Amino acid sequence: MRMVDVIHKKRNGGELTDKEIDFFVSGFVDGSIPAYQISALLMAIYYKNMTDRERTNLTMKMLNSGERLDLSAIPGIKVDKHSTGGIGDKVSIPLAPIVAAAGIPDPMISGRGLGNTGGTLDKLEAIPGYQVEQTKEQFIEQVKDIGLAIVGTTGNIAPADKKIYALRDVTDTVDSIPLISSSIMSKKIASGTDALVIDVKTGSGAFMKTLAEAQELAHALVEIGRGVGMKCIAVITDMSQPLGNKVGNSLEIEESIDLLKGEGPEDLKEITLTLGSYMAILGQKATNFNEAYAMLEKTIEDGSALEKFRAMLKAQGADERVIDDYSIMPQAKYHIELPAKQSGLLTKLSADEVGIASMMLGGGRQRVDDQLDYSVGIDLHKKVGDPVQEGESLMTIYSNREDIDDVLELLYDHLEIGTEVNPPKMIYEIIE
After folding, report:
1. pLDDT tens for residues 218-244?
2. Per-residue model confidence (pLDDT) at position 331
3. Set 80, 89, 122, 161: catalytic member
4. pLDDT of residue 250
5. CATH assignment of 3-48?
6. Whole-angstrom distance, CA of residue 143 vs CA of residue 74
7. Where in the chain is the domain with CATH 1.20.970.10?
8. pLDDT confidence tier of residue 111, bands split at 50, 70 and 90
9. Portions of the chain given CATH number 3.40.1030.10
């Protein structure tokens, strides 16, 4: 078999066989197929797409390129959640202790951010002492003991995905639905969970800018899950504006803890408890959505979710004082207000540009090896649909440089104040 023939077949819209998919995945991992040929194939896949059968086969080949975690020692149905990423999306941080407090084991393997989309691990590392790296044995033991862990990749999970993703990043093929879906599902299946809820974001701050694109990706993910026997539900949620009010690593930890104290913003609470409710259904702790939602809400009200979070911090070496004293996290030197230039209703607040603004302050990475400034970010005082008065602060910008004219200009250019607006829906569709 020749790699050029595989490229030619896909370039012309053909369906790759199981053997052909195995050939290029194995060859790329062992070094017998060069990156330039894989790059050509990725671009062919980007333009010609893949069938459901191809996507499932690609997922399984990437999954089987490394080891698969065995979580059978953890009692109960293990349920995880994955998000396709967005601005202010800190959901995993309060969600894991909420579902764990309801008796649903959540062994969560998370990632880092690149560009304007923040990573769960980066946010948690804003807490002094938090250890994201664990051995497989430590990871399993912690979930057995307290019901949850949020860690980085443990073991040699899906090495083919790591190599292919690095090429996708530099060949502008990141937003390919077959490549996104096989990447997500290969890692999640390899992580050993029994069931998965996927938060597929749509809007300016998401990979899938339109609802139609998000629906296609959500169906692809659920179809792959079904194809390999994994229980899987996708929830399509809004990312036209940031989720919650705070964007930036330390700030998002503050808001996550606020939610666990019953004080978080309503949009963050709605998304978190909606995703958690479907996790509870898949974990057989509830028979319907309303029952699950009420059960999870109770874990916030009675403080048990906050105590699960405290237990996770202790188990992973973090300073538990952060729950009551946010100032132990890095703090920005300057707090700069962005006043409204006119009165009216906030009609647009582009999630993408808010994320870019936070990255420009130092809160995100443009390259993998960039150092993060955990203290910087943006605290939104207004969301789409809110009334504003001329001169009123729309947001507070946390910065360690006093001159942020570039950031202010970007933000003003991508928000609008008018007279009429329909605030976006938070949840568009559930795909089971």
Report:
1. 999 999 888 888 899 999 999 999 999
2. 97
3. 161
4. 97
5. 1.20.970.10
6. 7
7. 3-48
8. confident
9. 79-323
Q: Report the CATH number of the 79-323 domain.
A: 3.40.1030.10
pLDDT for residue 119: 84
Torsion of CA 95, 101, 107, 113, to 10 degrees: 20
What DSSP letter does each residue of 86-132 carry, written as one string?
-TT--THHHHHHHHHHTT--EEEE----BBTB--HHHHHTTSTT---
Q: How many CA atoms lie within 13 A of 183 on its CB side?
A: 22
Q: In the chain, which residues fall in CATH 3.90.1170.30? A: 330-418
Domain 330-418: CATH architecture, name and number where available: Alpha-Beta Complex (3.90)
Active site residue 168: yes
Listed in sequence order, the residues at least 6 apart from 385 whose beta carbon sits closer than 8 Å to its beta carbon are 345, 346, 421, 422, 423
Residue type, 309: F
Closest CA to 394 of 276, 274, 273, 241: 241
HEC profile for 174-189?
CCCHHHHHHHHHHHHH
In 10 A of CB 47, how many CB atoms?
11
| Joined tokens for residue 117 | 């989309």
Stretch 29-36: mean pLDDT:
94
Q: Which of 10, 82, 269, 382 is catalytic?
A: 82
Q: What is the pLDDT of residues 189-224, one digit of tens each?
A: 888 899 999 999 999 888 889 999 999 999 999 998
Q: What is the pLDDT of residues 42-84, one digit of tens each?
A: 999 999 999 989 999 999 999 899 888 899 999 999 999 999 8
Choosing from 55, 168, 231, 382, which is the catalytic residue?
168
Tell the residue number behind the tokens 């570039």, with chain if given. Answer: 406
Residue 115 has pLDDT above 60, yes or no: no
Residue 116's pLDDT is what? 59
What is d(CA 116, CA 366) in angstroms, rounded to the nearest whole number? 8
The mean pLDDT of 351-373, rounded to a whole number, is 85
CA 211, distance to chain mean position in Å, is 18
For the entire predicted model, the pTM comes to: 0.92
187 carries an active-site annotation: yes
Given a contact cutoff of 8 angstroms between Cβ atoms, the answer to whether 222 and 235 are in contact is no
Task: Please pick, among 78, 187, 269, 310, the residue that the annotation labels catalytic.
Answer: 187
The tokens 């194939």 sit on which residue? 41
Of 183, 191, 350, 375, the catalytic one is 183
